[in-house]
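(Structure overview)
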Amino acid sequence: MSQRKGRKEEQEEIQVVEVTGSNVQAGNFFEQNQKMITYVVGALAIIAGLYFAYKYLYIGPKEKEAVNAMYKAEEMFAKDSFELALTNPGGGFDGFLNIIDNYSGTKSANLAKYYAGISYLNIGKFDEAIDYLNQYSANDNVTAITKAGALGDAHAEKGEKDKAESLYKEAGTKNENELLSPYYLNKLALLYYSNGKSQEAVTQLEEIRNKYPESPEGREAEKLIIRFQ
């Protein structure tokens, strides 16, 4: 009995030594690397401070300025005055191109890239349209769809039909939308047909007819199917 008790006490002593030893090692690590740890913690604190200062003291006020500066360009865009919207909307306000340059990093500057791309598309400058649309980071489902569709239009105008097909398909199937999806899938069907892909065009039109029967494209699909067969 006493032998068993002795073994138990030995095990407990070993466990105490092990725990104590690990604590000593941890203590030695922090003592030996105290300066390094202090520098790392200090650097992280500085980075966090700079981030919040940039976001709330710099970008916040700049964002408000950009919104106020861009409204006139948006007004010209709504009136289809695309060249004025890009460079000189009037009243001393910035066009989209100046918004992009002067308010970099803001949501408004990002949106101005989308407006600039659509504007260039409408005035027939397709390379510029592609450049600005690709720079735009879509943060909502609708402009994600219309960005892909507008890129499809630009590449189609440049004769890059395979690329346009891919983009129309993306616009029609990504983030499905009852209004926009059949519109871009119909564009895809028409492009298929112009590329000599009659069967692909018919298949696409049948999908529109079955999936979006209440859309304008769905109601017209049967006529095009008959025509393309």
